[in-house]
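Here is an idea for our session: we take a single protein and study its fold together. Which protein we use is up to you, so please pick one and set it down. Once you have written the record down, we can walk along the chain together:
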Amino acid sequence: MALAKITLQTFRNHALSELSDTAHFNLLVGENGAGKTNVLEAISLLSPGRGLRRAALADLAQKPTPDAEPGAFAIGASLIEQGQVSARIGTYTEAARPTRRLVRINGADASASALSEWHAVSWLTPSMDGLFTDSAGARRRFMDRMALAIEPGHAKAVGQLETALRERNRLLEERGDARWLDAIEAQAAQHGSVVAQTRSQLVAMLADELSALPPEPFARPILTYRAGGPLDPADLLAEFARARPRDRAAGRALSGPHRDELEVAIAQSDMTPGQPAASCSTGEQKAMLIAITLAHGVLASSGRPSVLLLDEVAAHLDPVRRTELFNRLRIGRAQIWMTGTEIAPFADIEAEAAVWRVSGGALERL
């Protein structure tokens, strides 16, 4: 088990909600707009990043009226390992600074990145269904979120790379001091190499996990990491220096880890790539996305407590795939949180699950 005694205070439509006595499977059922996904979003914010909706902090606090100023919210949870509370983690904002996210771990101030040292959080939501037809940037964020669940330092490296590239772009535009540009490019190469190699290793590990899964009832995806530049720091540094005239004209760096791509294709019977995922049917794309999520869940749950958030997944699967999904989740180590408008699709796991009915931001344990 990963999380217990989760509290939401003035978060979205939850004035004050608490989820205690959690289990391996945790179900949130209720009508659309009741606040089910808000609970998942709150849990996702107990990890680095902007959460599963990528919402602005000022939009998360409950407001007494639509025109009211942004307020504050708080989310907390106990982290459970081997039946014992190992930590109390939380994130919150203050009314005076509604756009600044604060974190506390065991009562002490901490950085958001420190949350990933305690547990891993992954998710699959309906908004991700278009991942394969979305931009390369969306797939890079997808890779980075998965990488963060395995390598806690990844978010810091990505941030350092982005900062260095912005400074490099500014210096190129202003034709700044060459010695300062050399130093900035050295930083970009160092951090960029770490980011690229982490992504490459992630995709390789996912490919191994996916190759071990049965091809049915979920489609088996073939993943390929396409580097946007050299992975070796010395080679990447040389590429930055060589490309200065081109990048100055373009106003941005045209090669490097910020140009990485995750390519996905559906596997043929002999495990060779077939049709690109973007050209597959909606059902095939959903099946491949679930397969990737399950494979990542195996990787993320090795060594640390982990949580998997599945928003409205069961309702969109046929009975065969739904049963297989539950079977795979049952044998995994990750704590599972799922939402649905009714309990019927979860009949196979209802007896072993903690179930809450959500209505108007209020929770009732069933």
